[in-house]
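Please review the protein record below. Let me know how this chain folds according to its tokens.
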Amino acid sequence: MNLLKPFRRLKKRSKPAGIDRKAELLRHITKDLEGIEIGPYFNPLVPKAEGFRSFNIDVFDTEHLREMGASDPAVRDHVARIEEVDLVGPAQDIARLVQEKFGDKKFDYVVSSHNLEHIPDPIRFIMGCRAILKDGGFLSLAVPDHRCCFDYFLPVSTLPDWLEAYFEKRSKPTAKQVFLRTYARAEQRKSSGKTYSSFNIDTDAGQIFAIEDELAPGFDLWRDLNERRDHEYIDAHCWFFTPESFKLICLDLQKLGLLPFVVDSVRGPNGNEFYAHLRASDPVVSAGFEETRLNLLRTVAAQ
């Protein structure tokens, strides 16, 4: 078992629950606006080829992405859809990457699909997005709901988890986060024998299993990484959410002055994901903060 092989993005296989995915993600985006897409790979939401005034960020350059795609049977037929990478580097460094290429230019939107959960320091990413957005611009996100994918058995991430990453200025997943890839990786097993790494929220819990024989190899990898403090970047889901747990983190960050956005909407789950739109504006912490927070805490605890 090669636990160091690239971590494959969660595929949007599950049947949607009534929300038009593309329309939702592009709700605040039109072709006359300028924006940035995070890590579109072979499936861009705002492709230049369709007339969007978009730029993209990826940790790999164009040539590397196309080589990766050509070697992946699931992507090989879609390599032509991989567009030129405009900004090469980690998404959490979006402010620096934009500054180096565009100076003080501001954009209308940032859109990201299934990237937030991979970012080692999401607070820095969100703050970086605010730095390059116009007032009133949008950060639009598609995020996996951990109850609908291979993260099913893992607990949701909390504000302290994010703060720890922020204070440590993390630039890569920790050895613990890499271990969680295989600690209790879930899959749906149907009576037909087919298995799926993503599923709907109403899937029978009796069909969901933890993949066997991954615990010990995962532990061996953690021990190895712990001995090599300067180990290489290994991709992983660093964070696990439900719509409500995400709203709770955002609410707390606003209270602490670490989220310079207004939460415009959070919708879902829809298939294996939910959607969030954050508007670049100074948030106002309402008098009902404690009540709202308590309700979210209770909801998350009951999930």
Summary: The chain has one domain: 21-302. The chain is about 30% helix and 20% strand.
